[in-house]
Amino acid sequence: MLTLKGLTKQIGGLRAVNGVDLSVKENEIVGLVGPNGAGKTTLLNMISGISPPSAGTVTFLSEDITGLKADRICKKGITKTFQIAESFPGLTARECTMIGALFGNHRKISMADAGKEAIGILDFVGFPAEKRETRIRNLNVVELKRVQLARALASKPKLLLLDEPTAGVDPKARRDFWEQIHQLAGQGLTCLIATHYMDEAERCHRLAYIGYGKLLTHGTVAEVIDQAHLTTWSVTGPNLLRLAEQLRSCPGVEQTVAFGSMLHVSGDDATRLEQAVAPFRTSPYEWRRISSGLEDVFIHLMDQSPDNYSS
Fold first, then answer.
1. Both 208 and 245 in a single domain?
2. CB 84 within 8 Å of CB 96
3. Inside any domain, residue 308
4. N or C, where is the chain less crowded by C-beta within 10 Å?
């Protein structure tokens, strides 16, 4: 459905996105993962026509849409969410959703029908019925996120671009959102979702991990973990902070990260790592070799990736 080739964005002396190649298939949910400032939003803005690329191409349903303005791209079937609180503070939740229906993907619709569709979509995303006529500026964070999604869905997109859609919301609202997204994908919607939450990344069909503007790895969760070739040990015991400081200076130890009441100790050379931790595998510490998780892998990727932003 979507193919990016060499997509690049130069902002002054900074290459915010650096030659990204990526494809998104129909009906799949692709997680665009990376830390704050990695280039995720810039990439989505180029796809959606908000910001033109400096180089590279964007192909959607076999058509080159590189450099088209946002309104034309929306009519072709790509919709990106944005901050409705800043754009429509005086509109009601229902009116804001109606805008998506009226100006969306290549169709003509009456005001009356747009109003009916808006109510149905607001109900689908779990927006409180009693607040449909409440002005955007008076909604809380979770309600704003629900209207943001409703407005995007009202445009009837084929590809939905979501930029950290659950930032700042509670765990239940995040769970509800992901259930809705998987339901929509089952109905034919394709989603590209930027997030830095690892539990959300695990809910995606495939992942694309970006660091310092470059695509570092992509694939399913299992493929991304396997490609890292990372070995991880967990350790529990007293004074883990002191132990972590000692381990960080050992050759073969790439990272030591606290996870609750334990440390994860990782490296990309299993033999060197085992040799490094061997002197510390004594009482009162308990060591266990475990499968590396996404968070272990992503920290590893960032540590191994050159910071071209500061060069």
1. no
2. yes
3. no
4. C
